[in-house]
Amino acid sequence: MQEEMQNKKNVMLLVPLLDQGGLERICAMTANLLKEKCSLILVVFSTKNMLYDVSAVEMYDLNLGSRRGVFGKIRNVFRRISAVKKIKRQHKIQVTYSFGPSANLVNVLSRVKDKIWVGIRGYGALEDKRAMKLLCRRADKVICCAKVMVDDIGRLFSTSKAECLYNPCDTEKIRDLCKADIEERHKSFFEGAGSIIASMSRADDVKGFWHQIKAYAVIRKELPDTKLMIIGDGDFSEYEALAEKLGVRDGVLFTGLQKNPFAYLHRASLYVMTSHTEGFPNSLIEAMAVGLPPLSVNCKSGPAEILLEDYRSAADQHKIYHGEYGVLLPVMNPEKNLDAAVVEEEEIILAKEALGLLQRKDELSRMGEAAKKRSEDFSTDSYVEGLMQKIRQV
User: Fold this and answer.
1) Do both 158 and 179 map to the same domain?
2) pTM for this structure?
């Protein structure tokens, strides 16, 4: 036991904030998962509006949140660098793993004797070519949440430093949460024998919800008892209006933000994702962990890697691929179209593929089991083991 304690690596996690957000959630989860396995500290630029629970982790709040004006921002970067360097020296940090563009910048500019790992969790980061060149030049590892992102970074920035580490999904906890009850006001929606198609995300144009509603209207013509459920926060009023124009409003439930969305997903039959872009679609894996068969557009990045054994075999984003763990659909028009009279070819394709599964219960069941098993490849245990393998090599 004493030898194990002596061999623990000194690790710093660096993140701008711990308010709501994908990378913030992953950082907080990483901190809680690694706290017993490393001599770990968490450094946050500001704890303002902190949402995630890291009370069991040693944390430093730099109290250096965002500043206004060019001069204020530049001065803030230098102050952050100075503060982080001081903490690195104090704790003899061996690995510093940063989350998000601003934290990545501070990380690569505050090297002491530590190994610098920067996290890239979305394609937006690749668009800032100057920043990416700096990161690829000065970091020891560029950790991405998708293999296709590793390929693209290697090709675009001529580096071999990019590595993949999938985001963690607490599959065990999700399955426990499935057993919980749902809100009383929503129970009537689940009455009846019809199938329920589910989707889960915030109200954002990038999620392409109008495609789902139009496809659902096509499905309803053949399977009138089918329903559509969209779980997520935000203003869905324009989608409610679209459903009304299409004559299917009575079959669509917008649940709003749910603390336990898995109790709702557990009552569905099929999961659909129509995003135009993703960093890595955690919600898709979460739905699979519940046991839902998935249909997803072949957007970058993640769906092809999740639903197929060989993601490179799905290079043509305009084809249909029936993968080992779900169906990969052609990418859809990113331009929002709320005209109920316009139904695009890709929306019809989505409807046909969904109908094909809903009408073949044996195939629906088989794919649900395959999806559930596949979700374990993205479990917290897999994530911790992958990250610890990298840490042990330092």
Assistant:
1) no
2) 0.84
